[in-house]
Each structure stands twice: as structure tokens, then as C-alpha cells.
Design brief:
The chain is of the alpha/beta class. A five-stranded mixed sheet has the order 1-5-3-4-2. Strands 6-7 form a two-stranded antiparallel sheet. The protein is built from 13 helices and seven strands. The chain is elongated. The chain folds into four domains: 103 residues, Conserved hypothetical protein from pyrococcus furiosus pfu- 392566-001, ParB domain; 58 residues; 97 residues; 38 residues, no CATH class. Helix 4 packs across helix 5, helix 9 crosses helix 12 and helix 11 runs antiparallel to helix 12.
């Protein structure tokens, strides 16, 4: 696919910077220290890309490049200009390749890209770009990305900046209560938790709340957990440790009570000394296993023949 551009020097006041084509509108005004230093030392190496419109130019790529030019007090900038009659597929190819040249797409940017593609050309055009994004064998990820662009800006920022992985987003989406999802996200942000700790806390809260018949919000609002969350002398690692301990105690307390009840039932059965009755691991299922011990194979065969009769 050939995309013909002209090169021109355009006045900044003639460039529309609305978010129509922006792959990351949630960070459009953010210029990292590293990027700012690069601009200061070498200038804008990759010119912004514009598309002609009736009364001005619309920015396709280079929001932060243009922002730097504005902050540096420039009045005009060299740009690549695309004709307004350019086909949607060509426009999106250009945007994708420009973004790849500056470091690739985050999951949030992939979601935004697919949203734009679908708006321009529907599902058919969207399918054409699935492979370009490396998603041709990842239907589950495509479905997650479709959900992502409908989420709050704060959550999208978390995923864009790798504070929340797409896998953790999927875990949160499995929680039926939106308030529970928000409470967990709030905890992740306040404690700046990494992926491993996030997964452990989600699992513990979900298991504990499920066994006690509560919502995760109700569990977090309990006095013992609130005392940890708002303890003035504990740092974050200490709070995490104390929370893990309390949740584990809740889980083990339930398991211990069930274990005691099970053993009491077994004693009442008065099994022979060579028999042993066991439950499924962690009582995940209702089935039980009866084990018999024989002094040798012959004794086992004799017992089996008797049972078959």
C-alpha cells in the first residue's frame, strides 16, 4: 500500500489538535523527562503527520512532538501532510507504523487503535489489522481490548503505564460487582503493587469473601482490615504482610472447622483399622475417597473376589 505525503512547513495555529486520531488521548499533554531531553538535544527527528481538512490541518501522529514545539515557543514546524481523500486503511497504516517507530503500542493504545479502525471501516477493516498488531491467534486478548476502551480513564492510564496488566484487568472483569473492582483498583494504586502481589491479593480477597458470603467491599470495610489500611505506623510492605496474614487466617479458619467436622463424621463411622476415608483437596468437591490396606496382594485378591460375589 503506497501512502503519498508531501512535506511542508506548517504554522502551529493552523493545526487542529483534537483527539480524533490520537491513540493515547489520556496522555496527550504528558512529555516524559527522557523525551523532553531528546527533543532539547536533537530536536524533533520524526516530523508530525497531518491530514488536510477543509479549513486547517488535523494532526494524525505526533501529539507530544507538537506539544514540545508549542512549549519551545516555535511558530511553525516541518510536517508530513496526507491528502484528505486518503483511504481509511492507508491512514490507519500510517498511524500504526508511526507509533511502532517510537516504541510500539501499549495494550491501551491497541484498544484505541482497534476502536478507530472499527469506526472507519467496520469489522472487515478491523480484521485486516489484527495480524499487524500481533493478535491473529489471540482472540481472548482481542475481546479484552474491546472491553478496555469503555473503561474509566484512570483504569486505561493504569494499563497504558503498565501499572495494571491486561491479565489483571481480565481477573477484575470476572468480579461481578463493579464496586469490588473499584475498591481493589484503589488498593493497587495506593500501595503501588506489582503484578505478583496484585494477583495474590485478588485471589485471597475473592476466596475469602466467597467463603464468608460477603462482597469484597464488605470484607475490606471490616474493622480489622480497616485498622491495617489506615495504620499510621505501618509502611506499605508491612500493611501487605498484615493483610495477607488476616486473609489467610480467615481462609484457614473455615478450612479447619470443616476439617474438624469431617473427622468427627469419620470417627462416628467406626471404620476398620485398615480403612481410611479422605475428602477432596481443600474441600473443592463433595466426593470422598475410601482407602483399604492389605498385608499383601493375595489378601487383596481374596477381598475383591468376595466383593464381586
Amino acid at each position: 500500500m503506497n501512502i503519498f505525503c508531501s512535506w511542508d512547513t506548517i504554522k502551529l495555529v493552523d493545526i487542529s489538535t483534537d483527539s480524533r486520531w490520537n491513540l493515547h488521548p489520556w496522555v496527550r499533554d504528558e512529555i516524559s523527562q527522557e523525551l523532553g531531553d531528546s527533543f532539547s538535544q536533537a530536536g524533533v527527528l520524526h516530523p508530525p503527520v497531518l491530514i488536510q481538512s477543509d479549513d486547517a490541518y488535523q494532526l494524525l501522529c505526533g501529539y507530544r512532538r507538537l506539544k514540545y514545539a508549542q512549549q519551545a515557543g516555535l511558530k511553525q514546524i516541518s510536517c508530513a501532510v496526507v491528502k484528505k481523500e486518503t483511504e481509511p486503511a492507508a491512514i490507519m497504516t500510517l498511524i500504526l507504523e508511526d507509533q511502532k517507530s517510537t516504541g510500539g503500542l501499549s495494550p491501551a493504545e491497541k484498544a484505541r487503535f482497534l476502536q478507530l479502525v472499527e469506526e472507519l471501516g467496520g469489522e472487515e477493516l478491523k480484521k485486516n489489522f489484527i495480524q499487524s498488531l500481533g493478535l491473529c491467534r489471540k482472540q481472548a486478548e482481542v475481546e479484552l481490548l474491546a472491553q478496555l476502551h469503555t473503561q474509566s480513564i484512570d483504569l486505561i492510564r493504569d494499563i497504558h503505564h503498565s501499572r495494571l496488566s491486561l491479565q489483571m484487568f481480565a481477573e477484575l472483569q470476572q468480579l461481578p460487582n463493579p464496586e469490588d473492582r473499584q475498591r481493589i483498583l484503589q488498593l493497587f494504586r495506593e500501595w503501588d503493587l506489582g503484578g505478583g502481589k496484585q494477583k495474590r491479593i485478588i485471589q485471597q480477597l475473592r476466596d475469602c469473601a466467597g467463603k464468608e458470603g460477603k462482597s469484597i467491599g464488605e470484607l475490606l470495610d471490616s474493622q480489622e482490615i480497616q485498622e491495617i489500611l489506615h495504620h499510621a505506623q505501618l509502611n506499605v510492605p508491612q500493611k501487605i504482610q498484615h493483610l495477607n496474614t488476616i486473609l489467610q487466617q480467615h481462609l484457614l479458619a473455615d478450612s479447619s472447622a470443616r476439617e474438624r467436622a469431617f473427622r468427627e463424621e469419620v470417627r462416628e463411622l467406626r471404620l476398620p483399622s485398615r480403612a481410611e476415608l479422605n475428602h477432596s483437596p481443600a474441600f473443592e468437591r463433595d466426593d470422598v475417597t475410601l482407602s483399604l490396606t492389605f498385608p499383601d496382594m493375595e489378601a487383596c485378591k481374596v477381598w475383591l473376589k468376595r466383593e464381586k460375589k
